[in-house]
Description:
Elements: H1 3-10, H2 14-23, E1 30-31, E2 37-38, H3 43-55, H4 60-72, H5 77-122
Antiparallel strand pairs: 1-2
Helix pairs in contact: 4-5
Amino acid sequence: MKIGDLARRSGLTAHTIRYYERIGLLPYADRDRSKQRDYDASILTWIEFLGRLKTTGMPIREMLRYAALRDQGVATGPERRLLLEAHREQVRARVAELGACLLVLDAKIGGYADAEQRISNDDPTHPEHRRRPAGARPARAR
Length: 142
């Protein structure tokens, strides 16, 4: 598949794909007769995995380390597993931190909602609590 097709299917830009190739995150693509990059569809799985690592905050230098180990073959499996386990612990810590932040946000939002409810229930100037003078009729539309 050509770089434009890979970009469309992977969600990366052609520029990002070329950059990833240049730094070693993606293997260099084969070239067709006209010297254009020609990618195998199997690279999509690798790109998806790289996207997951990026989303979870793995630094590019660690992604490069993982990619280099991957290129060395199955003998590096234990080292790759250790790298991913260490990253998993960082992700778990970040998820816990975000969970605590979410609780604070929920409490703050709840406090504002409670305050708004008290104001609308207790405020005599609130439109729902305004009294009409005795004998007053509702205004008519003109």
